[in-house]
Amino acid sequence: MRIFVKDKNYSFQEIINICDKNDLITVDCLKDENMISVEKEGVDCIFEFIKIHEDVFKLTWLENFEGLGA
């Protein structure tokens, strides 16, 4: 199952909606690191998104965890 793909831009709300549907948690690091990370409960970060424009994010890193990779 693919949740996020590398060659797509995401809005903040799209990331939140996908995470909600897949029981994932977002960690907002925008103020300090200009990024959003996505985690599964009990597991370290499995996706990282870098802010590339106002409300535009790009997947820059993923951990292949139980088929959640892109």
The poorly predicted ranges are none
Q: End-to-end span in angstroms?
A: 8 Å
Helix content: 10-25%
General form: globular
Specify the biggest β-sheet.
5 strands, antiparallel
Widest β-sheet, arrangement of strands: 1-5-4-3-2
**Structure summary, number of beta strands:** 5
Structural class: alpha+beta
- What proportion of the residues form beta strands (DSSP E)? 35-45%
Order of SSEs, N→C? Answer: EHEHEEE
Please work out how many helical segments DSSP would assign: 2
Please compute the radius of gyration using only Cα atoms: 11 Å
Secondary-structure topology with pairs:
Elements: E1 9-10, H1 12-21, E2 24-29, H2 30-33, E3 35-40, E4 45-53, E5 56-62
What would you note in describing this structure?
The chain has 70 residues and is α+β, with helices and mostly antiparallel strands. Helices cover 20% and strands 43% of the residues. It is built from 2 helices and 5 strands. It has a 5-stranded antiparallel β-sheet with strand order 1-5-4-3-2.
Essential attributes:
70 residues, alpha+beta, 5-stranded antiparallel beta sheet, 2 helices
Would you kindly provide a brief summary of this structure?
It contains 2 helices and 5 strands; from the N terminus they run E-H-E-H-E-E-E. It has 70 residues and is of the alpha+beta class.
